[in-house]
Specification:
With about 300 residues, this protein is an alpha/beta fold. It has a single domain, classed as Metallo-dependent phosphatases (Purple Acid Phosphatase, chain A, domain 2, 4-Layer Sandwich). It is built from six helices and 16 strands. It has helices spanning about 45-60, 85-90, 115-125, 150-160, 160-175, 210-220; strands at about 10, 15-20, 30-35, 65-70, 100-105, 130, 135-140, 145-150, 180, 225-230, 235-240, 245-250, 265-270, 275-280, 285-290, 295-300. Helix 4 (about 150-160) crosses helix 6 (about 210-220). The two termini are about 30 Å apart.
């Protein structure tokens, strides 16, 4: 499958923005996709979950696979021809036959602030058929769904204002029945990292607490988006806040415990796995699947 990019592309500081060509779903009235993050280890755990993804896509259908950041551990793409990009990002999920929607995580920035590492990954992805990462921040339409991919690490480390203004505008102007935002860092999470503005239990610390991300989410995501999917915490959760359904799906290659952060998730699991979603014109389904692609719990959602 060939994807063409760059309907619009512009820069704000080190963060670039682009609109990608739409994805045409198999069923025009619904979009089916898988989401998982924190995958980039190239180990047996990643391979097992990837096989589960391929199985689920064959059984349930997938118009896309969203990989929610931390695509290459531990320090991102180390050189322009780093073979791990192909081996750990593209190859494990290729048998599913669905385009990969990518967002960047903190490890894709060399554990935080290495923009050269992130730039290498962006350049690799932009020229790779079947990969959607045309810029740090991007959007595209797929049937009844408007997907938006954020660079939450750039907002975390360098400031959220450009992405906050862009996200608010894109969501306000969209007429899609479903507005689905993808990022790496969670807004709310009962995990070790926890809630934006109080990451790791920190509050009042400008960067470490994720205060910039809290401003981004509260200023542009709340009451505008229908769904926000993230990783960073290596577990799976379904939560809600400020009119948005929140999914944490960061158990694509390793797991970390559930930690009570007061969010009262409807679903919470520290076992490896991922999530499959079906979003139709007026209703949707969220199905949490284990590492082998077997269903554990299903929920109905509405835009």
């Amino acid at each position: 499958m060939t994807l063409l990019f760059a309907i619009a592309c512009r820069s704000s500081g080190s963060v670039t923005f682009a609109t990608a060509d739409p994805i045409v779903p198999a069923d025009p009235s619904a979009v089916r996709f898988v989401a998982l993050g924190d995958v980039g280890r190239g180990d047996a755990n990643q391979r097992r979950v990837a096989r589960g993804v391929v199985h689920a896509c064959a059984e349930r259908g997938c118009d896309a696979i969203a990989l929610l950041g931390d695509l290459l551990y531990p320090d991102g793409m180390e050189k322009d021809d780093d073979p791990r990009a192909e081996q750990w990002i593209a190859a494990p999920y290729a048998p599913a036959g669905a385009p990969l929607l990518l967002v960047l995580g903190n490890h894709d920035y060399g554990r935080g602030r290495d923009v050269a590492s992130a730039g290498r990954l962006l350049r690799w992805a932009k020229d790779r058929p079947g990969i959607v990462l045309p810029a740090n921040v991007w959007d595209l339409r797929a049937g009844p769904v408007h997907f938006v991919g954020l660079d939450t690490n750039a907002a975390f480390q360098f400031g959220e204002a450009p992405q906050r203004a862009w996200l608010a505008r894109v969501l306000d102007e969209s007429d899609a029945p479903w507005k689905v935002v993808l990022g790496h860092h969670p807004f709310r999470s009962d995990g070790e990292h926890g809630n934006a503005g109080a990451y790791e239990g920190w509050t009042g610390v400008p960067i470490a607490s994720g205060a910039a991300l809290r401003r981004l989410f509260e200023g542009a995501l709340c009451d505008r988006a229908d769904l926000y999917l993230a990783g960073h915490d290596h577990n799976r959760q379904l939560l809600a806040a400020c009119g948005v359904d929140l999914i944490v799906s960061g158990a694509g290659s390793s797991t970390t415990p559930i930690v009570d952060r007061g969010n009262h998730p409807s679903f919470a699991s520290a076992e490896p796995g991922f999530v499959w979603l079906e979003l139709g014109e007026g209703e949707g389904r969220v199905v949490f699947l284990d590492a082998d692609g077997k269903a554990e719990r299903e929920y109905g959602i509405a835009p």
